[in-house]
Every structure is written in structure tokens, then in C-alpha cells.
Design brief:
Keywords: Hydrolase. Helix content is 44%, strand content 14%. With 341 residues, the protein is an alpha/beta fold. It has two domains: 3-138 and 250-340, 3-Layer(aba) Sandwich (Rossmann fold); 142-247, no CATH class. Helix 1 (46-54) packs across helix 15.
Length: 341
């Protein structure tokens, strides 16, 4: 993405956000907000962002809090979902964008979920990749989450979260940066099941300096950016996204700040879920279960499965662009026009 199209904004709570921006070519073309997750930056959305920009859509792609050129606070409380939601709205306000289409991947899907609760009036529709809409739930022990996933899927899907939130991760990363990239972006998706997801395996793999071929969709520039992002900018910012969850601070914030009537996206907003077929942490069935649940029975939900691992926004970008464009043209824009009549 053209570096000249990056801008910064100072949010109402005093943090600087770095974001890529391209204005919509015409009023009929909505603006799309792309939110990334861990350990990405806005650059991971490059193929999707440029695809839609070339077709006249507005595009906003922030480096999320803790990443890239955006502020990197180290206090977990700064990553509370209600606060991050306000930050993102500040970006839209800075560009005078009344309503947008929110698209998320990984932790970006969590951010989009909370935008749907806190600011539903600012969005036309919501799209989630790999990670589905994340329901508002009461605080629960991290151990319980691990036990539930192991009972259902045979292994702990999120056993690596506590390690990433720990100081030990920084020590191990500095000693074995290549091992982290090898594990996170492997050519064989099953490595997540054998070397990362179950509790204790990521730490052991890091300390063993694990090596394996990288996935073809990861460029040398991606690898350098990932490693440099941690070594130059620190670890506590990006990993606070994990800490705010496992400490239940996010759940408590959600319960305290989201009214009962806003616990799910508005039924008038179309939803898209793109599952990653070979994802061994955010397994597709989780998303299918969420959108098959009673709260979504009256929603317009489009489900698609892409033949890739967790990083489908990199490996399956061409197909994602095709399906997302069709959904926007046939569901989102059509619904918006109907509502305005």
C-alpha cells in the first residue's frame, strides 16, 4: 500500500493511530474498515484494501492499538474493548465517514464485534474472517475455556494465550525470533495442533528453536516486519490483547458497558463469515455454531469457507475479494438502498 496514503489521528483518549486511507470515489460506494489481529499490521490487508480501492470503495485500514505506527500502551486497561471501539470511531470521525462496512480478522473480528455493540448506528454491515462474531459473555475462568475446547475438539485450542501474555514470551522471542515466525506461519497447518495450540506447546517449541518451512503466502518482507515489529516496538502492546481476555477484564468491560439490547449486531445489518478450512485454533465449526444460534435466526448471514489456514486474508485474498465484493453488492448495498427508500 502506498506509504503516502497513511495518515495519523490523535484519539479522544490521547493515543495516536496510524491508518491507511482512500476516500470513496462516489457517494454510492461505501467505505470499508479493515481491522487486523495478532501479530499483523495494516499491511496484511494489502490485497483486499487495494482491490476495493481500485473499484472506487473507500478504505480505512488502521494499525490496531499496540501495532505498527499506532501507540503502544503497556497497561492492559488501555485495551478494554469499549475504549478501543471509541478509538476506531475517532478515526471514522476524522475522515467524516458516517457509516462504514466493518471487516475483521483474528483479533480484528473481536474489535468488529464490539463495534457492533457499542456503535451499531455507524455500520452498514459486518464481515468476519477466521474468527466469527464474539458474543458478550459473563466472566469465566481461562481454565474453563481450555477445558471446554478440549472436550469438544480433543485439544486446547487456545492454550498459547497465557504464554503470549507472559514475560517469558519476550525472552524466548528475543532468543528465537525465527522459531516464532516458523510456528505462526507454517506450510503445514497441522503444526498449530502439534506445536502451538495445546497448552505448553508453543513455549516448548520456541525454546527448542523449532524450524519448519514457511507457508508460500508469507513473503520475506512479512517475516522481517513481524520480527522487527516486536524487537523494535516491544511486546507488551500487542500481547495485551491476550491479557485483557484471560484476566476477564474484557468480559467485565463488555457486561458493564453494553446494554442487553445491544448484545448482538442489529438484525438490519447483513453479516458475512469467512471460515478458514484448515485453521487449527479458530476452527470453522465455532463460527458455524455462533451463527446457527437463536440470536441470529433473523439475521442475513452469508457463510463461506476458504481452503486455507488461519491466514486466509493472505493466502486466499483473490477468492475473498470476489466473495466479499459479491456480498457487498448483492446484500449490503441493496439493503442500504432499500432502507433509504
Amino acid at each position: 500500500m502506498d506509504p503516502a496514503k497513511y495518515k495519523t489521528v490523535l484519539t479522544t483518549r490521547g493515543f495516536t493511530y496510524n491508518y491507511y486511507f482512500a476516500a470513496a470515489a462516489t457517494p454510492s460506494k461505501p467505505t470499508i474498515l479493515f481491522c487486523h489481529g495478532f501479530p499483523s499490521t495494516s499491511s496484511h490487508w494489502r490485497r483486499e484494501a487495494l482491490f476495493f480501492e481500485e473499484r472506487g470503495y473507500g478504505v480505512v485500514v488502521p494499525d490496531m492499538l499496540g501495532y505498527g505506527g499506532t501507540s503502544k500502551p503497556t497497561d492492559t486497561d488501555d485495551y478494554l474493548p469499549s475504549k478501543v471501539s471509541r478509538d476506531i470511531i475517532d478515526i471514522l470521525d476524522a475522515e467524516a465517514i458516517g457509516k462504514a462496512i466493518a471487516v475483521g480478522h483474528d483479533w480484528g473480528s473481536t474489535a468488529v464485534s464490539r463495534l457492533a455493540n457499542h456503535f451499531p448506528e455507524r455500520f452498514l454491515a459486518y464481515a468476519f474472517f477466521a474468527v466469527p462474531y464474539v458474543p458478550v459473555r459473563p466472566p469465566a475462568p481461562y481454565e474453563q475455556l481450555l477445558a471446554l475446547s478440549k472436550a469438544k475438539y480433543g485439544y486446547e485450542l487456545y492454550g498459547y494465550w497465557e504464554y503470549l501474555a507472559s514475560d517469558e514470551f519476550e525472552t524466548d522471542f528475543r532468543a528465537h525470533p525465527d522459531a516464532f515466525v516458523n510456528i505462526l506461519f507454517p506450510s503445514d497447518p497441522n503444526i498449530w495442533k502439534t506445536h502451538m495450540a495445546p497448552r505448553g506447546l508453543l513455549q516448548k517449541s520456541m525454546q527448542d528453536n523449532y524450524s519448519a518451512p514457511l507457508a508460500q503466502y508469507i513473503t520475506e518482507e512479512d517475516k522481517k516486519e513481524t520480527i522487527a515489529g516486536f524487537l523494535e516496538n516491544g511486546f507488551r502492546g500487542p500481547t495485551r490483547w491476550y491479557d485483557v481476555l484471560i484476566t476477564n477484564k474484557a468480559a467485565k468491560d463488555n457486561i458493564a458497558t453494553i446494554p442487553e439490547q445491544r448484545r448482538f449486531p442489529p438484525v438490519t445489518a447483513p453479516i458475512f463469515f469467512g471460515a478458514a478450512k484448515h485453521d487449527k485454533a479458530s476452527v470453522p465449526q465455532q463460527g458455524y455454531d455462533v451463527f446457527a444460534s437463536p440470536p441470529f435466526k433473523n439475521h442475513s448471514v452469508t457463510l463461506r469457507e476458504f481452503d486455507g489456514d488461519h491466514w486466509i486474508i493472505l493466502s486466499c485474498a483473490e477468492e475473498i475479494n470476489r466473495e466479499l465484493l459479491r456480498w457487498i453488492e448483492e446484500s449490503v448495498v441493496a439493503t442500504s438502498l432499500k432502507a433509504s427508500l
